[in-house]
Design a protein that fits this description.
- Helix 4 packs antiparallel against helix 7.
- The chain has 2 domains: 126 residues, Butyryl-CoA Dehydrogenase, subunit A, domain 2; 106 residues, no CATH class.
- With 267 residues, it is an alpha+beta fold.
- The protein is built from 8 helices and 8 strands, in the order ααββββββββαααααα.
- It is elongated.
- It has a 4-stranded mixed β-sheet.
Length: 267
């Protein structure tokens, strides 16, 4: 899924040599876009006579040591985003820190730190105003929601026919048809459904669900991962509303009938 992003970006930029290498599988690509959202050390870029220099951090870069290039976004001093194709190799100016994840550990996800890392000028693929990117990014991607539905589908197959089957169909339809405004709600529905389906499988499995060789514990961990993977503030708000609905009011208590005191006190 991530490999397609640099493939399309190089093709759109007219870099047929790079696009052909990605299309054939000669080179494999990943993405490093989350550095634009980092509140502490966001990705910055500055132009030099020979190319560009990168500084900052990018969390959640997938496929390290399995990919050759990363499609990276960084912002310059004029609030213009530069999309660059950066060779994926550790060194003095580019450090990868592996993450220990609750699930999908095989994804080889790392945090990247750039310290005046040089990128040749011909590796710039396109630019975009930061405000334009912000408007596009605010709702998140509907595509990531289908990962949650993959967990739901697996749970349904292990459980057998149940009411979850109809919910899966409805959630899939909502994601397919979601416009940008409706994406956060559709994503929240998918993530909450994944958590509930995995919990149902765990309870159905019983005590064996806590054993490491059981499907149920793995799917619960994956559903937990997908509660926050690729999230945005709007998705988080929608999801919390589903996870923490208002409690119904307690029914009024009937007054207790008076009881005879078996040990009356003297007046």
């Amino acid at each position: 899924m991530q490999h397609l992003t640099p493939l399309r970006a190089t093709a759109s930029a007219g870099r047929e040599d790079l696009a052909a290498a990605f299309a054939s599988g000669e080179r494999r690509g990943g993405i490093a876009l989350a550095g634009l959202r980092s509140p502490h050390n966001p990705m910055r870029v500055r132009a030099t006579e020979r190319g560009f220099v990168l500084s900052g951090a990018v969390p959640w870069v997938t496929g390290w040591d399995m990919i050759d290039d990363i499609y990276l976004a960084a912002r310059d001093q004029d609030d213009v985003i530069h999309y660059l194709l950066v060779e994926a190799g550790s060194g003095p100016s580019l450090v990868a820190s592996p993450l220990e994840l609750v699930a999908v550990q095989a994804s080889r996800t790392v945090n990247l730190a750039f310290d005046d890392h040089f990128v040749p000028g011909d590796r710039l693929l396109r630019t975009q105003p930061y405000d334009e990117w912000m408007a596009q990014d605010s709702g998140g991607s509907a595509l990531n929601g289908f990962l949650a539905l993959g967990v739901v589908n697996r749970c349904c197959r292990l459980l057998g026919p149940s009411a979850l089957d109809a919910e899966l169909t409805a959630a899939r339809s909502a994601l397919v048809n979601a416009d940008p405004a409706g994406t956060p709600a559709a994503r929240a529905v998918a993530s909450e459904l994944a958590l509930r389906a995995a919990a149902t499988l765990a309870v159905t499995t019983g005590a064996r669900a806590v054993l490491r060789d059981q499907h149920a514990q793995r799917l619960v961990r994956e559903a937990t991962f997908l509660l926050v993977f690729g999230s945005r503030p709007a998705i988080k708000t929608e999801l919390l509303a589903r996870l923490t609905p208002p409690l119904p009011p307690f029914p009024p208590r009937s007054p207790l009938p008076p009881r005879d005191n078996p040990h009356p006190q003297p007046r």
